[in-house]
């Protein structure tokens, strides 16, 4: 198991990683506004279980593939950035009806969970967590499980706050013009969030 100091550091790292702006949080914020909390729950659960699944995969050997073939990480990064640009375009062009619902359906659980595998921020977060919060002197399995199980509830709380905030914005953005402006703003921020990932 991790030491007390490592556990505290891991918790703070998970809060900072899952609570700060990034592709997941910007998209779930937009989903909360456009679809509401209830319809966006599969999207939320896909994010919050997809990351721990990645942690398990990386912790139990997937990172060795990237060490052997660095081109794989480059391919994933290019695919992820391309998909983020596509999602930004979808958010910006969402057809807003008068009222909370839109013509575009919210992300499904599978789509949100699968998106983590092409999300550059998720890869940086997962690889950093596994590298920073495991020690060679202790069995790897309980350490990886601890990291994954730490990210699950913290992700639900932090990303969930963004979802609730999105639905709360409905009261301020009650007409279609304001919702369209919000969607374009979120899409622009999503594109801007790609810039730091280009350097990874």
TrEMBL record:
The keyword Amino-acid biosynthesis does not apply. The chain crosses the membrane at residues 43-62, 69-89, 144-169, 181-199. It is a multi-pass membrane protein. InterPro entries: LeuE-type. It is found in: Cell membrane. Keywords: Cell membrane, Membrane, Transmembrane, Transmembrane helix. GO terms for molecular function: amino acid transmembrane transporter activity. GO terms for biological process: cysteine export across plasma membrane. One of its GO terms (cellular component) is plasma membrane. It comes from the Bacteria. The keyword Repressor does not apply. This is Putative threonine efflux protein. The lineage of its organism: Bacteria, Pseudomonadati, Pseudomonadota, Gammaproteobacteria, Oceanospirillales.
């Amino acid at each position: 198991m991790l030491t007390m100091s490592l556990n505290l550091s891991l918790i703070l790292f998970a809060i900072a990683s899952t609570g700060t702006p990034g592709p997941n949080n910007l998209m779930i914020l937009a989903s909360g506004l456009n679809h509401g909390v209830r319809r966006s729950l599969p999207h939320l659960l896909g994010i919050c279980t997809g990351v721990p699944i990645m942690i398990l995969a990386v912790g139990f050997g997937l990172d060795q593939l990237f060490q052997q073939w660095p081109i794989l990480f480059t391919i994933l990064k290019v695919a992820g950035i391309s998909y983020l640009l596509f999602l930004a375009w979808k958010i910006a062009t969402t057809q807003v009806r008068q009222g909370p619902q839109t013509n575009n359906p919210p992300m499904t659980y599978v789509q949100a969970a699968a998106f983590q595998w092409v999300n550059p921020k998720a890869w940086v977060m997962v690889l950093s967590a596994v590298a920073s919060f495991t020690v060679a002197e202790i069995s790897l399995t309980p350490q990886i499980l601890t990291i994954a199980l730490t990210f699950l509830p913290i992700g639900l709380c932090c990303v969930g706050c963004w979802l609730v905030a999105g639905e709360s914005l409905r009261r301020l953005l009650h007409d279609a013009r304001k919702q369209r402006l919000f969607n374009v703003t979120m899409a622009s921020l999503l594109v801007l969030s790609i810039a730091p990932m280009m350097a990874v």
